[in-house]
Amino acid sequence: MFLHAVKRLQSQAPTMPTAWLMGACMEAKGKQELWTMRKPEVLAALREQAVIQSAESSNRMEGVTVAPGRLRPILLGKSKPRDRSEEELVGYRKALQWIHTRNPEPLEPGVILRLHALSQGGFAGDAGKWKKRDNEIIEYGERGEPVVRFKPTSAKATPDAVHTLCIVYRDFCDKERLPPLLAITTFVFDFLCVHPFRDGNGRVSRLLTTLLLQQHGFEVVRYLSLERLIEESKADYYEVLKRCSKGWHDGKNEIVPWWNYMLGILKNAYGEFSSRVERFGAIGKADLVRTAVLRQEAAFTVSTIATACPSVSVPYIRKVLKQMRSKGEVAVQGYGRGAKWTLLA
């Protein structure tokens, strides 16, 4: 039955690779304040980019996609969603915003249901509700024949299973029976094995990862998309998930490969975050100007963008605007300081 793996491992020391990865993540966490205190305009751009990438990658892993030209306008609130796929993208963005603006609170089933309701965009009739029927994890053989890879917790047992999972997680954290990073990654893995929803389990698992890491002070989740890093290594993600789910119901499954995979994702996120802040240069400045331009709701001037990007010179802003104009992204009327720029749909 679920959680046996956690109980069996609570008295075991992590392997050397796991300990090394945890150490690297904790060291990076200790340095994050130095990075977050520098260049606030860079952090604002990174936050916005992270939300867009997270919503896109997490939904794309579930087969939900939208046209490239629609992605940014939808996620920046400049265009209303037209169909279910776009509703779910907006829903994921709202779920992330909900996570990033809430004070830490105990993890409980109601929080999980809330994340599911938001990430489904309120479009599905069962958004924010536990599954009503048993579900199965299906994979396809060489000839395309469906094969049941894993049978999650039954629909009848799901509410109690999630309730117990939350209690055990809080107990492990409160009493420090596992290092926080191992408690978080194990909780997320057990959540995936319970598979409490008809649809959207993967998306909610990634939202829970962000929520719990943030609650434990791993601020990198605000500035880098873990979802993008997972999508970029999704073959490894699914292989480790498959490997570690074997024997889960009997508490005989492996968990260390899952720990190492998720800790590796977090370590890579910190590495990329520090690199972007420390080496912020011309490429980063171009992204900063573009972000400021894309936020404009009405006609604007170069001075408007200069105010929004105090670290970028006016000549460089003009250079980026010229590039955007050549791509048909913006238009200009007039000349000199009084020229009015507009964002094209």
Write up this protein.
- With 345 residues, the protein is mainly α.
- It folds into 2 domains: 4-278, Orthogonal Bundle (Fic-like fold), CATH 1.10.3290.10; 285-343, Winged helix-like DNA-binding domain superfamily/Winged helix DNA-binding domain (Arc Repressor Mutant, subunit A, Orthogonal Bundle), CATH 1.10.10.
- The chain has helices spanning 4-9, 16-36, 40-61, 68-75, 84-100, 109-119, 158-174, 180-194, 201-215, 226-232, 234-245, 256-278, 282-294, 302-308, 314-326; strands spanning 137-140, 146-150, 330-333, 340-343.
- The strands form 2 sheets. It has a two-stranded antiparallel sheet with strand order 1-2.
- The protein is globular, with a radius of gyration of 22 Å.
- The termini are far apart.
- The model has no long low-confidence stretch (mean pLDDT 87).
Mean pLDDT: 87
Give the overall form: globular
Number of strands: 4
What would CATH call the class of the largest domain? Mainly Alpha
How many alpha or pi helices?
15
Q: By CATH's scheme, which homologous superfamily of the largest domain applies?
A: Fido-like domain
- CATH topology annotation of the largest domain: Fic-like fold
CATH architecture of the largest domain: Orthogonal Bundle
Rg calc = 22 Å
**What proportion of the residues form beta strands (DSSP E)?**
under 5%
Q: What's the story with the biggest beta sheet?
A: 2 strands, antiparallel
| Low-confidence runs | none
User: How many structural domains are formed by the residues?
Assistant: 2
